């Protein structure tokens, strides 16, 4: 049915192009016809066609049409894509098998760098959410079928989120999904109006889990405003709608964790009166919150080790300085401070020095918590997840750290799944292995029932990783 519709669309597109060509030939190659047509158009219509509002409306319609074509192409590529199965030997000689299946999401570059998507587990199903807010699921037992069949979940998301940028071109997007009992939480970039200004920050939606239909509502929001006007008001800064965090997970049965970024307003990460550049603990019933940590630039990975009661986070540095951070007691006060923008092992992209963001090459010397691992050059760090002993019998304090990055920087660790074995006190790395995936790894989760890790790739694809 989908294939027949695509052929029909292609045929109609060709006819439309031919009509435009004939019209152009008759009209613009003939001055008299062109002049007659101009005289035929009423003056009021001419004024309308030239009005800024009309032009803006037509540009929006064209943008929407382009977006619809991109989304349609994503479905077409999914239908015509093929399953890939291959063996991988890691840098330290460990053997793995990976199965890669296409998914019907727009690729990373399709909508100005919007995340491709995120994954989690609902009972015996894997749920997938695209950056543009489409939701699908598949039975875990069928993930390795010759063709990955996904069932779309209907939602009310377009009634809850009014910013059209969320659903196609633009940075507003889904930033994470998290399943907790019968609830689905969605971290996202929120657009709202405050004092006649368009504002952005990080928020959470929630829905009761029904695989036929998800009815979302606001779970956690706050009114702190991020935009270009406010970001550049004092310092020489650029508004960054990609520095938002948005990861969500459990701290305990009663509290969720949410990461936020400073949206380019660097000093906010060190401002205790701001919620930008923080990790927050949010009470699921009362929505009351407290700061767990501060001094974050762009936390892209979040994992609470429930057995050891410790919290891992990962974040993008500027040029260099991607970090893996560890909070040994996320339940305590005062909050931990990880240093941004006072300390970082990266540098500013323009090479300049900024007094409010000196990027000192030590954290501990300035009273901050040192990362347990940093990457210079950067690898485009993303999610972190514990390596289960059932998956790897040698695992003790072992964790996977995923990387995004670029195809011409593989030797630096981009597009790898990094595997770290830390010492018992997490002060030293006993072993660092690298598994070359070759694609940007956006999300990562362990699936106990098949003893494998699922990776959401920006290809776009879903990968299942087994250890041989």
SSE topology sketch:
Layout: H1 2-28, H2 31-40, H3 43-50, H4 52-80, E1 84-89, E2 95-102, E3 117-122, E4 125-130, E5 135-139, E6 151-155, H5 157-160, E7 174-180, E8 183-194, E9 197-208, E10 213-214, E11 217-220, H6 228-231, E12 245-252, E13 255-260, E14 278-283, E15 289-294, E16 299-305, E17 310-315, E18 322-327, E19 336-337, E20 373-375, E21 381-386, E22 398-403, E23 416-422, E24 429-436, E25 441-447, E26 452-457, E27 461-467
Parallel strand pairs: 6-10, 15-19
Antiparallel strand pairs: 1-2, 2-27, 3-4, 4-5, 5-6, 7-8, 8-9, 9-11, 12-13, 13-14, 14-15, 16-17, 17-18, 18-20, 21-22, 22-23, 23-24, 25-26, 26-27
Question: How would you characterize this protein structure?
Answer:
- The chain has 6 helices and 27 strands.
- The chain has 468 residues and is of the alpha+beta class.
- The chain folds into 2 domains: 2-40; 83-467, Neuraminidase (6 Propeller).
- Total beta strands: 27
CATH topology of the largest domain: Neuraminidase
User: Mind telling me which CATH architecture of the largest domain this is?
Assistant: 6 Propeller
Fraction in helix: 10-25%
Per CATH, the superfamily of the largest domain is: TolB, C-terminal domain
Q: Specify the biggest β-sheet.
A: 5 strands, antiparallel
CATH secondary-structure class of the largest domain: Mainly Beta
Note the gap between the termini.
39 Å
Large-scale geometry? globular
């Amino acid at each position: 049915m989908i294939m027949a519709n695509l052929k029909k669309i292609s045929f109609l597109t060709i006819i439309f192009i031919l009509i435009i060509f004939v019209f152009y030939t008759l009209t613009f190659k003939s001055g008299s016809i062109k002049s007659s047509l101009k005289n035929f158009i009423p003056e009021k219509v001419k004024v309308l066609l030239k009005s800024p509002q009309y032009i803006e409306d037509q540009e929006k319609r064209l943008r929407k049409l382009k977006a619809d074509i991109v989304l349609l192409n994503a479905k077409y590529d999914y239908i015509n894509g093929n399953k890939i199965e291959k063996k991988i030997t890691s840098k330290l000689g460990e053997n793995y098998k990976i199965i890669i299946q296409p998914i019907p999401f727009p690729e990373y570059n399709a909508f100005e760098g919007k995340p491709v998507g995120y994954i989690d587990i609902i009972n015996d199903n894997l749920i997938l959410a695209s950056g543009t807010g489409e939701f699908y699921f598949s039975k875990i037992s069928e993930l390795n079928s010759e063709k990955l069949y996904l069932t779309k979940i209907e939602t009310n998301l377009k009634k809850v989120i009014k910013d059209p940028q969320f659903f196609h071109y633009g940075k507003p997007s889904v930033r994470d999904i998290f399943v907790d009992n019968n609830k689905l939480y969605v971290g996202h970039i929120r657009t709202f109006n405050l004092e006649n200004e368009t504002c952005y920050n990080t928020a959470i939606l929630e829905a009761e889990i029904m695989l036929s239909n998800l009815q979302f509502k606001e779970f956690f929001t706050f009114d702190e405003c991020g935009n270009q006007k406010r970001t550049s008001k004092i310092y020489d800064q650029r508004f960054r709608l990609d520095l938002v965090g948005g990861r969500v997970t459990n701290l305990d049965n009663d509290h969720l964790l949410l990461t936020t970024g400073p949206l380019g307003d660097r000093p906010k990460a060190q401002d205790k009166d701001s919620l930008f550049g923080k990790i927050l603990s949010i009470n699921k019933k009362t929505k009351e919150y407290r700061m767990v940590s501060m001094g974050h630039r762009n936390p892209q990975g979040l994992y609470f080790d429930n057995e050891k009661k410790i919290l891992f986070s990962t974040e993008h540095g500027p040029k260099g300085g991607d970090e893996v951070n560890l909070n040994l007691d996320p339940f305590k006060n005062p909050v931990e401070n990880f240093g941004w923008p006072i300390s970082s092992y990266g540098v500013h992209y323009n090479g300049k020095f900024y007094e409010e963001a000196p990027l000192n090459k030590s954290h501990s010397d300035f009273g901050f918590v040192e990362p347990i691992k940093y990457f210079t050059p950067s690898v485009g760090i993303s999610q972190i997840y514990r390596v289960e002993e059932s998956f790897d019998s040698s695992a003790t304090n072992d964790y996977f750290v995923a990387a995004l990055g670029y195809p011409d920087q593989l030797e630096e660790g981009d597009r790898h799944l990094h595997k770290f074995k830390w010492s018992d006190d997490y002060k030293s790395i006993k072993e660092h292995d690298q598994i070359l995936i070759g694609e940007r790894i956006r999300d990562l989760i362990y699936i106990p029932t098949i003893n494998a890790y699922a990776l959401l790739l920006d290809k776009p694809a879903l990968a299942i990783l087994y250890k041989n």
